[in-house]
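thread: overnight batch results

M.L. [08:02]
morning all. the overnight job finished for the chain we discussed friday. pasting input first so we're all looking at the same thing
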Amino acid sequence: MKIALSSYGTRGEVEPCVAIGRELIRRGHEVSMAVPPDLVNFVESYGIATVAYTLDSQTLIGPYVNYWALYHGKSWRNRQDLMRFRLETQRVGTKALAETSEMLVSLAAGADLLLTGVNFEQPAANVAEFLDIPLATLHFTPVRANGRIAPVLPASLAGPAMAAREWWTWRIGTKKSEDAQRHELGLPRAAGPLSRRMAERGSLEVQAYDGACFPGLASEWAKHGGNRPFVGTLTLDSPTEADEEVLSWIAAGTPPICFGFGSMMVESTAETVTMIAAACARLGERALVCAGVSEFSHAQDINHVKIVRAVNYGSVFPACSAIVHHGGSSTTPIGMRAGVPQLILWKIPDQRIWADAVKRLKVGTARHFSTATEASLVADLRTILSPEFRARARAMITQMTKPDESATLAADLVENFVRSR
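M.L. [08:03]
and the structure it wrote out:
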């Protein structure tokens, strides 16, 4: 089979597609993939033929993060700045949407399947329709209308409310640009939101997380006839140069609290390290800080704090007493697989879905990053380090699909879907 993959996003959104691609290559299939330029080397290291989009991951996500940071910040009433970031987000998104369409027409020509991540799945769906090939998508959170992710509403109201918002977002926000793309491809105007059209075409919507993370969701979606299967979180368990040193440091003392920032830029890194160090000192804990894309090299040396660029979360998290992070769709389930309690300091709405999930499951707690202080950090860490939270987090291990099993399940689904079509 010839499989075309597309993932326009950060490392956490590209890695699940790479996990499937690697498994499909192992089975003898021809796989090619389009990703942001700063992730080309990462993808190619797994033997996948790769082409680069123009915009790198931070250019793409930066305006979006800035918009929501201002929206939730103390100065949210500054409408001029809020509008500026919103327009910049729209400008970058429009450019990426157009590029996605052009790139995928070339990449997917002659393919047996086009598989895309959730970012810009609309242009991918239109390209698949134009080329008359099957479409599969990877969802890292429950993005389709459901009654399980809105904590303030009962399921009977949350589902219809989410469906109404989905229609409104399409009608007011994306229909114009989508119709422009469809016109260029020689397709008729879109007659409804993407979710409805994908269901009508019988597209495969792989849920790349475990149903246990959102109790009741699997039964709610059973009516879709197996087109929204759960496979667990797709990760690569990639080693880093720092792993051996970090694990040695961990073994030399008490299990630390791991602070990971991933692809979310931290502006005030010195203040953040000071806050982490002070909170952990008050609790008698050590801290492991994984800087991600942020620059922490200028932070002062503190005896009970170790700062590294990145580690293999799959091997390091189980050795920690708790984890504090941004609520990424990969980081959160990796924490659940490790059986450690979590504090999520989220920045954007996608991350809040996972923040609400850990609170609902009572395996952690959460708050917006901008509201975190030394006092709140101490209080939140005391909460999740309690025996009750530790026990519930430990119990999650048995409900999570292992990484190798997730990749196998996803590849099986892709193969069977192509054969059925």
